[in-house]
Amino acid sequence: MAKLQEIFLVLLILGQPLAANAFLGEVIGAVAGVAAVGVLGPVALAGLGFTAAGITAGSIGASMMAAGVPVAVLQSAGAAGISYSAMVAGGAIGAGAAHSAKHALDD
Hints:
- By secondary structure, this protein is mainly alpha-helical.
- It has five helices and two strands; from the N terminus they run ααββααα.
- The protein has helices spanning 2-14, 21-48, 60-66, 72-80, 84-106, and strands at 50-51, 54-55.
- The protein has a two-stranded antiparallel ribbon.
- Strand 1 (50-51) and strand 2 form a beta hairpin.
- Helix 2 packs across helix 5.
- It is elongated, with a radius of gyration of 18 Å.
- It starts with a helix and ends with a helix.
- This is Interferon alpha-inducible protein 27-like protein 2A.
- Keywords: Membrane, Signal, Transmembrane, Transmembrane helix.
């Protein structure tokens, strides 16, 4: 079913006239947001020291923990991966940013 939805979305995008570039920009923004959260999120978490094995000693994550900063959510994401809802949120933020940028450029 998901594959059918992906095909429909691609056909919808390709069928848009060039005048509908605002819609296309929002779709591209949404895809970029999902990619940023889904691909770069785990890399960033690991870089901060939040891994599946725990918080890496001597990392920024360990420093945050020592300073009393709540790190449970970041460690959970580092151990279990980025959730579907976080990727959806990233897509929504990307689409919103593209929408805002389009309107700012039009004004």
